[in-house]
Task: structure prediction
Amino acid sequence: MKRFVHLHELTRTEVLDLLALADRLEKTPEGERLKGKILALLFFNPSLRTLASFQAGMARLGGASFVISPGQGSWQLETRLGAVMDGAAAEHVREAIPVLAGYGDALGIRSFAGGTDLAADVADAAFEEMAAVCPVPVINLESAIDHPCQALADWRTIDEIGVPHGGKFVLSWAWHPKALPLAVPAAAVHMAALRGMEVVVHRPEGFGLPEAVMDRARLAATLSGGSVRETADRAEAMEGAHVLYAKSWTAPVAYGRPEKEAALRAGLRGWCVDESWFAPARPECRFMHCLPVRRNVVVRDEVLDGPRSVVVREAHNRMWTQMAVLHRLLGGAA
Amino acid sequence: MKRFVHLHELTRTEVLDLLALADRLEKTPEGERLKGKILALLFFNPSLRTLASFQAGMARLGGASFVISPGQGSWQLETRLGAVMDGAAAEHVREAIPVLAGYGDALGIRSFAGGTDLAADVADAAFEEMAAVCPVPVINLESAIDHPCQALADWRTIDEIGVPHGGKFVLSWAWHPKALPLAVPAAAVHMAALRGMEVVVHRPEGFGLPEAVMDRARLAATLSGGSVRETADRAEAMEGAHVLYAKSWTAPVAYGRPEKEAALRAGLRGWCVDESWFAPARPECRFMHCLPVRRNVVVRDEVLDGPRSVVVREAHNRMWTQMAVLHRLLGGAA
Amino acid sequence: MKRFVHLHELTRTEVLDLLALADRLEKTPEGERLKGKILALLFFNPSLRTLASFQAGMARLGGASFVISPGQGSWQLETRLGAVMDGAAAEHVREAIPVLAGYGDALGIRSFAGGTDLAADVADAAFEEMAAVCPVPVINLESAIDHPCQALADWRTIDEIGVPHGGKFVLSWAWHPKALPLAVPAAAVHMAALRGMEVVVHRPEGFGLPEAVMDRARLAATLSGGSVRETADRAEAMEGAHVLYAKSWTAPVAYGRPEKEAALRAGLRGWCVDESWFAPARPECRFMHCLPVRRNVVVRDEVLDGPRSVVVREAHNRMWTQMAVLHRLLGGAA
Result:
């Protein structure tokens, strides 16, 4: 494995191999495996789980890490090619990326969507420009359109709760006071499709995921024996579901147009998951969310504090699955 | 030891055991003792000594640590139960605490007083709510009403400077431009009482520590052969003192009422420790402060730069005593 | 070596020894050399390379490090002697420095120029006051008038690109929207002089470096067989040059007078390095800069993205040369 940037760059077999390695590392510690190795972490955006789980994961494998956060103790970084840099940014990623990468053995980058140009964000253009000047393996800590570390942890969680190969996975939009990126829903739908599940995207009109994302997920589903469809009908979506994965995201049809987007969201406060959503589902249907989650906005306390919720387990699985990724990228032969 | 949250949860013997372990660790390094162990550190408030001494202490024991600071590169966290989270906070501590704890083997939390509800702060309600959802040992890095790490370091410092068991310990209020928390004075008075000292709290009218704090300290004093009393008379307080411990704190009688509190503090600028304070004390009387300290506001340069001051030694002892705590919580059998 | 604060505190032989050690450490890792050692890092100003390269370097030698950034999760620190601290700063460096130093085995400090008092900044008065209260070896991470870590990395880079002992080194002023410190140009001119090069400082009128800096560089040049001179004539400066080192700096004749300084800089936007600057130079003339660099302000993309640029290699050499410094300060006998 040369980099870990998109789940769709891996075969299903490679994903299963990473998950098996995560199991092995949890059961049989390899505290010296990455001794002398250093992970550089570059965060353009806030983080709790990602920063903590990567630092802890490197330490558990015997390696070390360092963190750079532009604008928070480090220079603001410019990403536009050809820019005349007489504004706030003191440094360009074309220098910063190879410099930071050179101090480490791999580089993790978190860089959220620009949020104005849907085509550029769906193509992960900014992330790929940074990856192109990075001389060491790159890890995607959440980019404009993907969050493969989250997807891997979610897959492991779904395995742990015993959802069958062809189980029903509902990704549902939820209300949120802000227009949020597409990265997690895009990653979740692809993960579930690649796992071979019956995937239903439940969302209001205007909130359908971009065609490129859906097409890629459908291809993955085809190869894995699953399916992907969309609906705005909650009862139909939840009928017989094994998993409800909630997440808010911006309306692709109003991408980069805040007023239109807000108008589309107005009136959708009712899209807050509560126990009643699960009535048509299987009794054992679980609730998933990538976190952070706004309580009583995206989902009610009764769900998060009840037995359906596996959100903490998902977060915990971030560490074990990322350790598998680090092991494959930096650990030499297994 | 299952957690290190309040000194009053430990017996005097357990405290003496920690101090003996700190001595041993300073003399005989155990650089592999916490190999493979990870300390998660969550700071809701600023830190210099606590962050540095815990990171250094873990490293000296062969372990690792990571730091999360909500609002500084990480999401702001909600602490209120039942909150509808449509404001600034993106995540609730009910998720964040178990998630961070799960990446580590112990979790340190710094969470200063809310400052509006005295009863809730004296009961450390917010801290205990977080501790209740933490699946690994919790360390109090300063809560609303306690700072046990500071207390342990101060005890060691008092031992080092040769103060006898029943020596006289004066905790004195000092002027400060802001209304400060009660955690350090509450911790100091309890520590000195549990050590069996003659404890005098020297403070202006209105600044008496909460009854629950004083009652607990008096109980500890009784069991250890010491005593605890209050006075506003400086000469009486300082008569024959072995130690003057200065600290500013808010007026409990005006808790959560900033205007009344400021009125009580107005006119107290003279409560700035200078050399003259020590005239009635023993010649060798030492000056202590937990740091950070505002020079020429809380205490004059002549004291801090003179031979009485042991403030740097107190800070240094943070590391050794905390290493003893980490050793007991994470190190297996000694 | 007791500290690493100024290159001019080292003999040429000691510098060559550090460079040889950097070579050895890059070729033959010593991953256990600083096991159990801790580097304290105190940043009053932003950093990318310095923070990352020191943390990575300590880890590559088996040691650990921690970072404190006043005002960013830590208290603001006061530096003025005798200050009545009733403002924003909660702690004085006279406490903070010995405290942090005591948790580590060496202390690195970054503290940029005050920018108002040229004599004080040229004497590095603020830095030396902090160094005076530090009980462990001090490393200068960039002070008011020096950046010896950068100088050492630059020397190594110049060796690597094969510039002869007496080669021509041009330090050129460049335009920048802000008045920048003198530390890097002062460090660069001294380094090049001590290496025995023909040093030309190319700058507009008013931007000549302080006499104390130039005198010290001239002395170093004399001892090493080199020379140091200044000019405002670009063609003369670049004639036969081996290296062009670009950097912006404030006008010493207008130090601490922002309006006069801005007036001097106005009209100098043309001092942006492009390929035409290299016409009179040797064909293989290289471009150097300490980074961060503002593209198309200080230097054009065509230079940074072309074969002349060695800026990333300079940054990379920070790690290896600093590892040599750490090794000498903390590593015992070689």
User: Anything to note?
Assistant: The CA atoms of residues 194 and 220 of chain B lie 5 Å apart. Chain B has twelve helices and eleven strands. Chain B has two domains: 7-146+318-330, 162-309. The domain at 7-146+318-330 of chain B is CATH 3.40.50.1370 (Rossmann fold).
